[in-house]
């Protein structure tokens, strides 16, 4: 988790409350608008650890989405095999070895203002995990989706430990559903690479 500034000034961000009834259709279209029109391998990297309730958003999302059996996306980071600060470099190397020029969607939790808690934030561009740990971790993701799980500013690690599991589970389910919609909009002749299936074409099939 990155508890400090995680977005560069050039990133385009879009946020919605995770309980918003229109979240899935609206945010999925926004994320899809950032996807390339040419074939790419799609990789989902869910960052976090199951040792902290608040920081479990990423691996829980990875587990839920993996259970949906995505056809066009490879998932890294689950409850059983989390991707976190101490092994992110290793997984970055694995992804480079296993995928040719992948398009990466990074998933992570974050803390924010009281009014931001419960929001999902999608952004064009990478996020930088580990800033709060002062670790030299690589930025990751062509785009990213983060969930504001609790309030920042004071005793942040304790806040993470005391984040309500119900909120994290609900947010992870929404992100998994969002990724599933995007996966359904991709098409391919073989397992990879995939290309975006435009909405108008999908309706004619």
UniProtKB/TrEMBL annotation:
- Please give the Pfam families that the UniProt record associates with this protein: DUF1256
Q: Which GO terms describe its molecular function?
A: peptidase activity
* Entry keyword Protease: yes
Keyword Protease tagged = yes
Q: Which GO terms describe its biological process?
A: proteolysis
By its UniProt entry, which InterPro entries does this protein fall under? Pept_HybD-like_dom_sf, YyaC
SUPFAM superfamilies reported for this sequence: HybD-like
Top-rank lineage group of the source organism: Bacteria
Instruction: Output this protein's name.
Output: Spore protease YyaC
Which keywords are on file for this protein? Hydrolase, Protease
């Amino acid at each position: 988790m990155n508890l400090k500034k995680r977005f560069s000034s050039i990133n385009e961000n879009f946020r919605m409350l995770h309980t918003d009834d229109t979240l899935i259709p609206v945010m999925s279209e926004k994320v899809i608008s950032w996807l390339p029109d040419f074939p790419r391998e799609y990789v989902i990297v869910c960052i976090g650890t199951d040792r902290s309730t608040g920081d479990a958003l990423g691996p829980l999302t990875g587990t839920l989405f993996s259970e949906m059996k995505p056809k066009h996306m490879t998932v890294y980071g689950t409850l059983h095999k989390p991707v976190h600060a101490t092994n992110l470099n290793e997984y970055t190397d694995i992804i480079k070895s296993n995928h040719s020029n992948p398009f990466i969607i990074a998933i992570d939790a974050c803390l924010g203002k009281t009014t931001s808690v419960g929001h999902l934030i999608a952004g064009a561009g990478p996020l930088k995990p580990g800033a709060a740990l002062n670790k030299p971790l690589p930025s990751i993701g062509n785009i990213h989706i983060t969930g504001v799980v609790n309030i920042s500013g004071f005793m942040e690690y304790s806040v993470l430990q005391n984040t309500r599991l119900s909120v994290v589970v609900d947010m992870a389910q929404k992100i998994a559903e969002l990724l599933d919609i995007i996966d359904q909009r991709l098409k391919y002749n073989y397992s990879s690479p995939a290309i975006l299936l435009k909405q108008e074409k999908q309706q004619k099939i």
